[in-house]
Amino acid sequence: MVKNTIERCVACQAFGRANAPEPIATTNMPKHPWRVLYVDFYGPLPSNDYLLVVIDRYPRFPDVEIVRFTKASVVIPKLDKIFAVHGIPEVLKSDNGPPFDGDEYKQYLKSLGIKPEFSTPLWPQCNAQVEIFMQPLGKALKTAKIEGRPWKQELN
């Protein structure tokens, strides 16, 4: 009955939330660094590049790589580079967008024994570790542009 009333209510349809927020659930902090990682893209930038952002859940340490495309064939070598420095994680959390939803990416993770976890579609807050980092990253890149500095310099 409530559902029917809401479905017929013009004001409810016009001003109601399209996507109800997912209930907040606590996640356990890993006991060691580099166990659980979050990954996402920032961009496109004016240069048509993207930034592949990888954040460690434990110390919230970011790793940022410049990529030209958001395809698995471009992302996988960048992840290999990051993993060569820090080691292979147990879990890699991402959104459901390309390339993270593709077979090539999933096979890559499987071959390394990494468990993929995906955030709720249309709810980027589920990948909050990366989304929080995107704000100061964007501010730094915009500041560099305003001050006439190369944006790549801000990544060091």
Automatic annotation (TrEMBL):
A Pfam family reported for this protein in Swiss-Prot or TrEMBL: rve
UniProt GO BP: DNA integration
InterPro entries: Integrase_cat-core, Retrovirus_Pol_polyprotein, RNaseH-like_sf, RNaseH_sf
Residue ranges of the TM segments: none
GO MF term list: nucleic acid binding
Protein name from the UniProt record: PREDICTED: uncharacterized protein K02A2.6-like
